[in-house]
Amino acid sequence: MPGIGLTKKIKKSTEAINLINPVGNLFDGNRLMENLLVGNIFVELALALLAGALLGILFFAGLWWTVNQLQSSQHVALLFIISLLVRSTIVIAGFYFIIGKDWHNLVAGLFGFMLVRLITTRYIQLKQHTHSLNNDLILDTEEDVL
């Protein structure tokens, strides 16, 4: 028994809609996430930047920990070399995963890493400058008393 061709009419109408709107229904849950996250270069670059910043935080926090441990260590050179190898291995592996399919991700990750380096060095310089100013103030007040 032949039908009225409803399935063919629905198929043709959806094909016509897809020709007019190739993105599809933006409010469809699966398509919404696919359209927003997959293939959106800005999201990929932002995630690569964030991952690079996290690698930078990990690297420089490890360096800070190593420098603090060097004072109490009996094997200074061994501690420094092992710390350098571990930190470098983690960062290189992290950048390997960041790069993915596109070199743009690597550039964004390196930018995030360097941004953390810049912030860290500025913070340390500001902290040292503030510490030296506090010492100068303490010395000045002691001279006034004497």
What features would you describe in this structure?
The chain is mainly alpha-helical and 146 residues long. 83% of the residues lie in helices and 0% in strands. It is built from five helices and no strands. It has helices at residues 6-20, 29-37, 41-70, 76-99, 103-145. The longest helix has 43 residues, at 103-145. The N and C termini lie far apart (114 Å). The model has no long low-confidence stretch (mean pLDDT 79).
Summary, kept brief:
The chain is mainly alpha-helical and 146 residues long.
Any descriptors?
single chain, 146 residues, mainly alpha
Helix content: over 70%
Number of helices: 5
Order of helices and strands: HHHHH
What percent strand? under 5%
**Residue windows where pLDDT falls under 50 for at least 5 positions:** none
Distance between the termini: 114 Å
What structural class do the secondary elements suggest?
mainly alpha
Q: What general form does the structure show?
A: flat
Mean pLDDT: 79
The whole-angstrom Rg is 29 Å
Number of beta-strand segments = 0
Major beta sheet summary: none
